[in-house]
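User: Predict the structure for this protein chain, please.
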Amino acid sequence: MIDPRRLRVLRALADHGTVTAAAAALHLTPSAVSQQLVALESEAGHPLLLRKGRRVSLTPAGELLVAHAHVVAAELERAQATLDALASGSSGRVAVAAFASAITQVVAPALAALRERSIELSVRDAEGHESVRLLLDGEIDVAITEEHRTTDRFTRFPLYTEPFDVVLPPGHALNGGPVELTALADEDWVVTLPGNPLRDVVEMACAQAGFTPRIRHTSDDFRAIQALVAAGAGVALAPRNAVRGIPVAGVAPLRRVVAAVRRGSEDHPLIRIVLEVLDRLQ
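Assistant: Here is the predicted structure, written as structure tokens:
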């Protein structure tokens, strides 16, 4: 019989790629993780891992077992939600991670409404890709993130869509009206760091306009991006709720923002109320 607790260890390894990183995510020692994996291989009756130095990869049997582990985890989340609903679950705390402008847009307005229903939010500022990791690791209950960052291990609830605007230095020749992205092909650019999903949006939009942006400066802080642009360091594309700029001519790049929860946990009474309030405030 396979111990479902060991499936959680295998999932963490698949998510993080090394025993050390999986151990950190699970708050275990690397030796404890290794022992659990050895025991799981014995229970499964198949080799699950291919070891290459510090990193490991999954065998076909390991990949198959991880897929089943996702299903088991969702059912356990659903079972816990059902038990909590049975116990009424009328008050408690829900941990939420969101990027800065989403905190302003939806999370902060939800605080008062939820407090009236005896639900406290624990809010953590995290970019979309980071909040997804936190949700996978069980450190938060709800992630406010970009839709394309989510996986089939999450249930998604659409919140809002916002366009990207062009941010230009003072006195720039294109200030004052909608801007064609093609007109910015020869400019220096200020963009977010690699791994930030917003950088992917910017690079894709520029590619569709027929050029690769000449990146000179990077920051994940939109106040810093705005300051760099204002100082003449380059131009930028930024979500409208983060930095107010000039509309893009034609079809603007969009950020679709969702609330994501681990599949199965959407029926938890507290999480369900939080999702309802976030939706109502749109």
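The chain has nine helices and eleven strands.
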